[in-house]
């Protein structure tokens, strides 16, 4: 179940992670070992077993759609690497 | 004033109540001890002395007002100094999660669990070191350097709540908050000779807990005894409308007076006594089980049949959830930004260079497990096996009231011992992971020492929301033993 360097690069790209060539090699090896170990789940008979997404019985409880005050804008922008006129400044998204 | 730090949480509380000393004096004593020892221990990432002293003075005013007209009991955490793991938000105070990608981040709000403790009069001394984003079992994955175990500075305090554990073990504070996603409160408690509580999933609000694995994360605490942990638990637990996984069930009434374990059934799972477990760990656990038996409990051998699958299940589910939770770290709204030619390069550089190796490994594992073509075989299958693990616990609790088992296969290992072998580190978690997968609570507490003088911990697990049983049984054990009273030489050092 070894991961190739190409597969590691593909996953890293999906996850928006830059890797050095040394990291590509090291993670390919380490992730392969971990996935090899995880593959033992393949042989477990789970027919008829429902998946557990949450250990809680009730999920996503609802509340009335009542507007509440938002935190002040300045507070939210305090941690922004770059901001301008009350907005986050970002590189262009569209060409 | 150094002797104030030798007081347990309850002793400190009674001293404050009687007026033996002020909350300010107690906070100062803790801050002095931190100053004297932390260059060797490195428990803290950020100290908040001005905030702490301000809170202490406010607590002193409350205590004085109470003494003038004591119509209600003094809240049990009034004036008590606490350390807070750096994955929990404290408004305006740097919160890094042990990562460079959150360097300089000051949260615009405080976590509910922390807020409740502060409202009750507790004092925040500072933020403690953690494995990056709580991913790790040794605190060696912190981007800010490891924390050293006060019992032996060449060894790890455990992880990921290693900073909190080291702070309490070194007597820098009577208690500290931690979080437990795969064992991160119980294992450091075990490595540092402390009592640590992993709460039931949904019992304590996760609002303000920076997310790692949302179906697994829990807020917990570490202190010197079950008695000391109880007021922290009762104050921070309970429904929070800001956390959609927070449970409305009322908190239990927990009395620690006159506990008798007669008739209690304690299950010992055979699958937890594996080859490769350190010999003195096994004998200490078995001796502790005999203590419970001597107190009247019935010991039964039980089976948690899918125990050996917990590790692969966890290391697919937790990374999958982490890959989604950590997608927000993109240099856009918070944290440092590494600029590139374009937006994509900004993401790649910011994340690639500011996340540490373990975090990157887990993000990639999770991304792979969730990716098209692999989802059913990996993540989907892991979720189904998780159901089997949950059912193991449900079935066991039909026969027994509590489950007793080891916390870790070893005692505290040396810093650097696991080298660059992630899988060997993951194997440290085998005994703690199942409780997170099942959502059940667990309490770790010291039951002996190994031949190197390092603490050995044991854990009790209870059904979901049955924390009361954990407190009572652990307290019963701690009433007839004194392992929890032992402390490292370092903690006795006089800062003066």
Tally of extended strands of chain A? Answer: 2
Identify the overall geometry of chain A: flat
Count of individual beta strands of chain B: 11
β-sheet strand percentage of chain B: 5-15%
Roughly how many Å is the radius of gyration of chain A? 22 Å
| Helix count, DSSP H or I runs of 4 or more residues of chain A | 3
CATH topology-level fold name of the domain at 5-40 in chain A: Histone, subunit A
The largest beta-sheet of chain A arranges its strands as 1-2
Report the structural category of chain B: alpha/beta
Could you tell me which chain pair has the largest interface and how many residues each side has?
A-B, 51 and 70 residues
Helix content of chain A: 25-40%
Q: Element order, helices and strands of chain A?
A: HHHEE
Fold topology:
The complex is a heterodimer of chains A (95) and B (496).
Chain A: H1 5-14, H2 21-38, H3 73-77, E1 83-84, E2 87-88
Antiparallel strand pairs in A: 1-2
Helix pairs in contact in A: 1-2
Chain B: H1 9-18, H2 23-41, E1 44-47, H3 49-68, E2 81-85, H4 112-119, E3 123-128, H5 162-169, E4 175-179, H6 186-191, E5 195-198, E6 219-223, H7 226-236, E7 265-269, H8 279-294, E8 298-302, H9 310-325, H10 343-354, H11 357-370, H12 376-399, E9 402-406, H13 422-426, H14 433-438, E10 442-449, E11 455-461, H15 467-480
Parallel strand pairs in B: 2-3, 2-4, 7-8, 7-9
Antiparallel strand pairs in B: 1-3, 4-6, 5-6, 5-10, 9-11, 10-11
């Amino acid at each position: 179940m070894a991961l190739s360097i190409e597969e590691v690069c593909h996953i890293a790209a999906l996850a928006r992670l830059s890797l050095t060539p040394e990291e590509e090699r090291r993670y390919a090896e380490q992730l392969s070992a971990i996935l090899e170990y995880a593959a033992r789940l393949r042989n477990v008979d789970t027919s008829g077993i429902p998946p557990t997404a949450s250990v809680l019985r009730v999920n996503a409880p609802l509340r009335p759609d009542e507007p509440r005050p938002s935190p002040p804008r300045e507070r939210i922008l305090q941690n922004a690497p770059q901001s301008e006129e009350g907005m986050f400044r970002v590189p262009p998204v569209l060409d | 004033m150094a002797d104030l730090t030798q007081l347990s949480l309850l002793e400190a509380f009674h001293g404050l109540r009687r007026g033996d000393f002020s909350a300010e004096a107690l906070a100062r004593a803790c801050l002095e001890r931190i100053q004297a020892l932390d260059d060797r221990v490195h428990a803290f990432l950020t100290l908040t002395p001005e905030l702490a002293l301000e809170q202490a003075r406010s607590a002193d005013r409350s205590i004085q007002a109470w003494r003038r007209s004591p119509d209600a009991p003094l809240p049990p955490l009034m004036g008590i100094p606490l350390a807070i793991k750096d994955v929990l938000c404290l408004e305006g105070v740097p919160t890094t999660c042990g990562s460079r990608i959150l360097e300089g981040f000051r949260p615009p709000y405080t976590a509910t669990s922390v807020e409740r403790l502060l409202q009750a009069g507790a004092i925040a001394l500072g933020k403690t070191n953690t494995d990056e984003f709580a991913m790790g079992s040794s605190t060696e994955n912190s981007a800010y350097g490891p924390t050293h175990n006060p019992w032996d500075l060449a060894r790890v305090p455990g992880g990921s709540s290693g900073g909190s554990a080291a702070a309490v073990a070194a007597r820098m504070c009577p208690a500290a908050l931690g979080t437990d996603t795969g064992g991160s409160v119980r294992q450091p408690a075990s490595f540092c000779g402390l009592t640590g509580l992993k709460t039931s999933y949904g019992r304590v609000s996760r609002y303000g807990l920076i997310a790692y694995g949302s179906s697994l994360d829990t807020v917990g605490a570490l202190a010197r005894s079950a008695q000391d942990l109880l007021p922290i638990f009762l104050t921070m637990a309970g429904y929070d409308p800001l956390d959609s996984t927070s449970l409305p069930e009322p908190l239990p009434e927990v009395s620690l007076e006159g506990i008798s374990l007669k008739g209690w059934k304690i299950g010992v799972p055979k699958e937890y006594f594996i080859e490769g477990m350190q010999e003195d760990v096994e004998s200490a656990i078995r001796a502790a089980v005999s203590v419970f038996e001597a107190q009247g409990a019935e010991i039964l051998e039980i089976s948690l049949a899918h125990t050996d699958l917990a590790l692969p299940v966890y290391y697919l589910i937790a990374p999958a959830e982490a890959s989604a939770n950590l997608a927000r770290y993109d240099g856009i709204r918070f944290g440092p930004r590494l600029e590139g030619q374009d937006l994509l390069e900004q993401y790649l550089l910011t994340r690639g260079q500011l996340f540490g190796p373990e975090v990157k490994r887990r993000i990639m594992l999770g991304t792979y497990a969730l990716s098209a073509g692999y989802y059913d075989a990996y993540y989907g299958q892991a979720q189904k096996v998780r159901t089997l693990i949950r059912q193991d616990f449900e079935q066991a609790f039909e026969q027994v009231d509590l489950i007793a088992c080891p916390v870790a296969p070893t005692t505290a290992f040396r810093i650097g011992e696991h080298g660059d072998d992630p899988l060997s580190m993951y194997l440290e978690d085998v005994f703690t992971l199942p409780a997170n997968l099942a959502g059940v609570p667990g309490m770790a507490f010291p039951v002996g020492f190994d031949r190197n003088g390092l603490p050995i911990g044991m854990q009790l697990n209870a059904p979901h929301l049955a924390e009361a049983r954990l407190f009572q049984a652990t307290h019963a054990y701690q009433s007839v033993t004194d392992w929890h009273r032992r402390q490292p030489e370092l903690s006795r050092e006089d800062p003066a």
